[in-house]
Amino acid sequence: GLGRWQLFLPSQIPLGPLMLRTDASAEDCAAYLDGLLAALPGYAWTISLLKQDPAYCLSLNATGGARGEWLCYGTTVSIAVNGSFSEYWESRSKNLRAKMRKLLGRLDQAFVRENGASATVNDVEEAGWKGRRGTAIAKGNVQGVFYRKVLEGFANSGDGRVFQLRLNGRVIASQLAVQEKGVLVLLKTAHDESYASHSPGRTLDYLMLQHLFEEGQLRMIEYYTNASTEDVRWSTSQRDIYHFNYFRSPLLRSAAKAARRVRHATPGWASCVAINDSLTPFGIS
Question: Which of 102, 114, 182, 236 could form a disulfide with 219 if both were Cys (CB 3.0 to 4.6 A apart)?
Fold first, then answer.
């Protein structure tokens, strides 16, 4: 947008890469951003630092005073791998534990009845809604090439993980993940839609967590998702991922907020007031 700059984020990245001194104060951060605005081509009036995670990024909340703006992008969840799986599971809600007992029992019954061929995560995704929308991992598409390279890179150091739920040899759910320094990050999940009534993705989560607690190599599991109510029920902690907008002046910040209010109040104006689109680039994807 005219005069508006923001971090470039590839579609798969859950965090905005931002390099700042770890001992930088709020005043230091404002000075750095002022220098960046001055160095950018043309008249740069705002810069947006997207997808900042307070657990791993320097806090920008106090930066800029009247020129800074904090916008919530979404809530992510994590699970601390402390103690035993039994202790973790007993701390979950009674309803969640009862639901999983039913799902595991239903899967045991299906195991007796069914038989099928083996599948890969590519097959599982391509057969479902992700395949129909063109966002599935496939051997030849951009998503497939990206995840293959990521997993190969981490696998070379023993840190690439693939978890699968099989029913009589057939993969009905799959989870791709990578780990480093005791933190496991979940990358991609897929399930066979013909088994949707069995909630294979949640069943895989249960069995995967049981295995990881028993393995004892991790301290944290990061989901990096726009958490649903169900996700929160599984988690031990939650936090907001945020966007941070920094403006050249308090007046420009006020104008941006006013334009955003107008657009939200009268959606039909969006096509008339073109500047609105450049003022509000955010939203949950």
Answer: 182
Long-range (24+ apart) CB contacts under 8 A made by 178-185 are 178/150, 178/151, 178/154, 179/154, 179/217, 179/218, 180/154, 182/217, 182/218, 182/219, 182/220, 183/218, 183/219, 183/220, 183/221, 183/222, 184/212, 184/218, 184/220, 184/221, 184/222, 185/222, 185/224
Q: Please tell me the distance from the alpha carbon of residue 225 to that of residue 241, in angstroms, as a whole number.
A: 10
- Work out the number of other CB atoms within 10 angstroms of the CB of residue 95: 9
Question: At what angle are helices 94-113 and 200-215 packed, to 10 degrees?
Answer: 110
What is residue 145's predicted lDDT score, i.e. its pLDDT? Answer: 85
Cβ atoms < 10 Å from Cβ of 81: 21
How many Å from the N-terminal Cα to the C-terminal Cα in the chain? 20
Alpha-carbon torsion, ordered 260, 265, 271, 273, to 10 deg: -50
Q: In terms of pLDDT, which residue wins out, 189 or 134?
A: 189
For residues 130, 132, 133, 135, the Cα torsion angle rounded to the nearest 10 degrees is 40
Q: Supply 268's token pair.
A: 């039909």
pLDDT of residue 6: 94
The 10s digit of each residue's pLDDT in 96-131 is: 999 999 998 887 776 544 333 334 555 555 555 455
- pLDDT of residue 149 exceeding 60: yes
H helix or E strand, kind and range, residue 122? helix 121-126
The single residue listed with the structure tokens 């909630």 is: 199
How many whole angstroms separate alpha carbon 175 and alpha carbon 30?
Answer: 40
Of the candidates 81, 40, 76, the residue with the CA atom closest to the CA atom of residue 57? 76
Considering only residues 75 and 138, tell me which one the structure prediction assigns the higher pLDDT.
Answer: 75
Q: Is the pTM of this model over 0.90?
A: no
- What is the rounded distance in angstroms from the CA atom of residue 17 to the CA atom of residue 50? 9
